[in-house]
Design goal:
Elements (H helix, E strand, L loop, with lengths): L19 H16 L6 H22 L10 H14 L6 H24 L3 H25 L15 H21 L3 H19 L4 H18 L2 H21 E5 L5 E5 L10 H17 L13 H6 L21 H34 L3 H20 L8 H36 L1
Antiparallel strand pairs: 1-2
Helix pairs in contact: 1-2, 1-4, 1-5, 3-4, 3-12, 4-14, 5-6, 5-7, 5-14, 6-7, 6-8, 6-13, 6-14, 8-9, 8-13, 10-12, 12-13, 13-14
C-alpha cells in the first residue's frame, strides 16, 4: 500500500530540503538576527532588512508560493495588526503612525520568515545556538562594564540599561530552562553558568522592574517544572531579596526627634523614590487621557505621547517631575491611549494565547531541546509582560528579538510534532 504524504518536506533524519533561493533568504536572516542585540550593527540590521524586503516578494514570485506558516497566534496577531491599521487615519499624526506601523509589519514579516526558512534541523539548531551565544556575549560585556565604585548601571551593547534589561528578561529564561531540562552533566553546567552570567548582568542594570520580572520568572518556571530544586531556588532567591531589602532599610530619627526611614543607596538596585512617584503621576495622567480617546486612541507609535502632550503647559508639584513628555511607562496604558481599548484587549488576547499555547506544548513535546526552548520562551513572555508594566520597551530591535525567540519556539514544536508523525508513519509501514 502506498504511503501517505508527510506534511512538510522532511527526510527520515528530520532535515528539510532547501533550494538556492531559500538559502539566500536564510543567510540574510542569519545576519539580520545576529545584528539585533548590537547597537553598532544597526546600519547592518537596517540594510539587510531592506534587502529582505526586496527579495522576499521576489522569492514569492519565483517560487510561486508564500512563506506564511500557520501558528497558534495567527488570529490574535493579525487581528491586532488589522486594528492598528484601522486607527491610522484617525491618529493625531497619521504620517508618524504609518511609519511606526511599518515597524510593526517588520516584526510580523520576520516572525513568519523565521518560522518558514528555518524548518531544516541544522538551520533551526544553528539559529537557536546563535541566539544563545549572542545572549552570552551581551551579558559578559555588560558585566565587564560595571564599576562597583561608580555604580553606574550597565547597558552592554544597547543604548540604555532599560533596553538591556528587557533583552535579558526575554533571553535569560532560555538558559535557565536548558539547565533544568538537560541530562548531560557538562551541558547542564554550561547552561547553568550562562544563566548565572545573564542574571548577574540583569542585577547590574540596577533595574527594579527587571528584578521584579526576574523573580516572577523564577516562580513561573518552578510552577511549570514542579521540581523541588526549582522551588528551592525560587524560594531562596526570594528570601535573599527580602533580607537584602531589610538590610538596606535604615531606621533612625531626624533632628526634631521624629522617626525617619531611609534606604541605603550603596546597592546595585536603584532606590530613589522620586522615579516611583513619577510613575504614578504618569499613569494617572494616561488614565485621564484614555477616557478622552478610548476608541481609536491618539495614534500608534511611542512618540505620539510626546507629540500630542509634550508642548502643553504643565503645573509640576514640588518633588514631582513632568509627565507630558515622559511616555506612558506601561504597555497596557500605552496601547489603550495610542490605539484604544480595543487594541489593548487584542494585545492581551495575543499574549494569553501565546502563553497558553507554549505551556500546552511544553507538556506535550518529548524532545529535550524543544521542551527547554518552549519552557524558556513561555517564562520569558510572562517576565516580559511584567517588565512592560513599568516601561513600554517592546519597540525597535527588542520587539523583533522577541518575535524571533517566539518563532524559534514555534520551530522546535513543529519539528517535534513532525518527527513524531514521521515515526508513527514509519512504524505503520513496517507493520504493513
Amino acid at each position: 500500500m502506498k504511503a501517505e504524504r508527510i506534511p512538510a518536506v522532511l527526510t527520515l533524519d528530520g532535515t528539510a530540503y532547501a533550494g538556492a533561493p531559500d538559502l539566500v533568504i536564510r543567510s540574510l536572516l542569519y545576519v539580520y538576527i545576529l545584528s539585533l542585540p548590537f547597537q553598532r550593527l544597526l546600519v547592518v540590521e537596517r540594510n539587510v532588512f531592506l534587502a529582505l524586503l526586496f527579495l522576499l516578494p521576489l522569492w514569492c514570485a519565483i517560487c510561486r508560493k508564500h512563506f506564511f506558516v500557520k501558528t497558534p497566534v495567527d488570529i490574535p496577531l493579525l487581528a491586532f495588526v488589522a486594528w492598528v491599521a484601522f486607527t491610522i487615519p484617525f491618529a493625531a499624526y497619521p504620517a508618524y503612525s504609518l511609519k511606526e506601523f511599518g515597524k510593526l509589519m517588520q516584526q510580523v514579516v520576520i516572525f513568519y520568515a523565521v518560522v518558514y526558512f528555518f524548518r531544516e534541523r541544522s538551520a533551526r539548531l544553528t539559529l537557536t545556538y546563535l541566539l544563545l551565544g549572542s545572549g552570552v556575549i551581551v551579558s559578559a560585556y555588560g558585566v565587564s562594564q560595571f564599576d562597583w565604585h561608580d555604580g553606574q548601571a550597565t547597558r552592554s551593547f544597547f543604548p540604555a540599561e532599560v533596553w538591556l534589561t528587557t533583552y535579558l528578561v526575554i533571553v535569560g529564561p532560555l538558559f535557565m530552562a536548558l539547565a533544568y531540562t538537560q541530562s548531560d552533566g557538562r551541558l547542564c553546567a554550561a547552561y547553568l553558568c550562562a544563566s548565572i552570567l545573564t542574571t548577574t548582568c540583569l542585577l547590574m542594570t540596577r533595574s527594579r522592574a527587571g528584578l521584579v520580572a526576574f523573580f516572577i520568572e523564577l516562580w513561573v518556571m518552578a510552577w511549570l517544572l514542579k521540581r523541588r530544586s526549582a522551588v528551592f531556588i525560587a524560594s531562596s532567591a526570594t528570601i535573599l531579596l527580602l533580607i537584602g531589602m531589610l538590610w538596606l532599610v535604615r531606621v533612625g530619627t531626624d533632628p526634631s526627634g521624629s522617626i525617619r526611614i531611609a534606604v541605603d543607596d550603596g546597592t546595585p538596585v536603584r532606590t530613589d523614590v522620586a522615579s516611583v512617584i513619577h510613575r504614578f503621576d504618569i499613569w494617572a495622567f494616561a488614565l485621564s487621557k484614555i477616557q478622552e480617546h478610548w476608541f481609536v486612541g491618539i495614534g500608534y507609535g511611542k512618540d505620539n505621547y510626546k507629540l500630542v502632550y509634550g508642548d502643553e503647559p504643565e503645573e509640576v508639584l514640588p518633588g514631582h517631575h513632568s509627565v507630558k513628555a515622559a511616555g506612558a511607562h506601561n504597555i497596557l496604558l500605552a496601547l489603550a491611549l495610542h490605539v484604544g481599548l480595543v487594541g489593548m484587549v487584542l494585545y492581551l488576547w495575543l499574549v494569553v494565547r501565546l502563553v497558553r499555547s507554549l505551556v500546552q506544548q511544553f507538556h506535550r513535546v518529548e524532545d529535550v531541546m524543544a521542551r527547554a526552548i518552549v519552557l524558556g520562551t513561555a517564562v520569558g513572555v510572562v517576565g516580559l509582560g511584567v517588565r512592560l508594566m513599568f516601561d513600554q520597551m517592546l519597540v525597535g530591535t527588542l520587539a523583533v528579538q522577541f518575535w524571533v525567540v517566539v518563532a524559534v519556539a514555534v520551530l522546535h514544536v513543529g519539528a517535534s510534532r513532525q518527527l513524531d508523525m514521521l515515526g508513527e508513519l514509519t512504524t505503520v509501514q513496517e507493520h504493513r
